[in-house]
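Ticket reopened. Same input as before:
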Amino acid sequence: MAEETLLKHADTHEHEGHEPFMPADEFESNSPMKVSYGKMMMWYFLLSDAFTFSAFLITYGALRVSNKWWPDPNHVFNAMPFMGHKQIPLGFVSIMTFILILSSVFVVLAVIEGHRMNKKGVLLWMLGGIAGGAAFLGCQAWEWSHLISEGLRPFFNPFVPDAQGMTHLAKSIVDPETGRRVLEMTGNMVTDAHGHKFQLGEGFGKFGGVGAFGALFFGITGFHGFHVFTGVLLNVWGFFATLSGKFEKVGHYEMIEKLGLYWHFVDLVWVFVFLAFYLL
Amino acid sequence: MSRGHVPSDAEYKSQVSAVWKATFWMGLITIVEVVIALIWMKYLTDYPRIILNSFFIVASATKAFFIIGEFMHLKYEKRALMISMAVPLIFLVWAIIAFSWEGGAWHHMRGY
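Engineering reply: fixed in the latest deploy. New output:
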């Protein structure tokens, strides 16, 4: 039977020139996984992307346990926009997590409306998903610029321990001779961001805390943010393609499903970035 | 969900309610995670941190199952697709064990 189908399509292929060898619907009904080619390939792409992110996060874990001391996330990530110097540990990242989860929910609802061929529903929920993604990116931009203003760089980390191992944000300056960013030190005493002096923990010098902290933070959250950015662009495309009636004409909203898969994956990765950087 | 299958009203209702249920649980887990982190920071810092970290890992894995199963719809796909996604991830178990071990070895080499 399969042979017959193949032959039949080989025929049409010859006659019409641009007919695909096996139409997508037939691929789906012949596939043991009962999914279309496009959806299956999206799953495999996401699997490969999962390995990329896992490699980053596992590297983070290995470097973190290999160091004697690591900055306390409750101290590093405790700022909130419009709250001045009030310290709210985990507050802002929790809001970011909720924004991303909600955005993911909106896209699921768009997919469900797509099954019912409800164009208006798809448009509405896609818009919600896009807004959530954009809001998340805005939050991340704020968080990055805040940490950069505190002196964190990919190769310099101003979060250092005192003699008891407590995390402090130290004041850093650019050394005029070498052009390198260093801690402002007098003897073994360092000034923190509020002007208080404290004794630097053993094993740490003017080059600050573990340098890899900044590189890992900017690298991993940046790579995730790049995925969010790409997802927002793809969702915007999906929105306008829906608006133009493209999927109505094709007869199904499967493209929205594929965009949804990518978007939920971005949310999934954030769960683990949140775990590795902010909770553990 | 195969292409071209239009769900009935009852199916639609149960799908939407399943999504909101998953959202509720994921939101609740996140709130509990943050609250426990804050309580730990204030009152329980003397206890071994591994208790807290184990809770965080279990909670995050639960959230991951909700996202993959419900939002990405894998719960409702054919078993062949589930297995072909899950089996390669076994390598990650090995990678996590191997690199934690290696990180510990670097820790000792540095003389801590």
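DSSP finds nine helices and seven strands in chain A. Chain A has two domains: 1-30, 38-157+210-279. Please confirm and we'll close it.
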